[in-house]
């Protein structure tokens, strides 16, 4: 396979066909691109596209 050919490790989004290199990236893509529900900080009310972004925010939110 060439540099831009598909490999067995690539995963395809079932909703839009985007190809990603691993399961974690696929999960993040699906959350950001296809999840209409926002994750909301209970302390300040800021909304985030992913649980990971909310988790990072919570470390500094008081």
TrEMBL record:
This is Zinc finger, C2H2 type protein. Signal peptide: none annotated. SUPFAM superfamilies: beta-beta-alpha zinc fingers. InterPro entries: Znf_C2H2_sf, Znf_C2H2_type. It holds the Pfam family zf-C2H2. Residues 11-39 form the C2H2-type domain. It comes from the Archaea.
């Amino acid at each position: 396979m060439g540099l831009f050919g598909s490999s067995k490790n690539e995963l395809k989004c079932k909703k839009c066909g985007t190809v990603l290199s691993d399961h974690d990236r696929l999960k993040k893509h699906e959350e950001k691109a296809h999840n209409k529900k926002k994750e909301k900080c209970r302390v300040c009310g800021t909304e985030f596209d992913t649980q990971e972004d909310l988790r990072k925010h919570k470390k500094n939110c008081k």
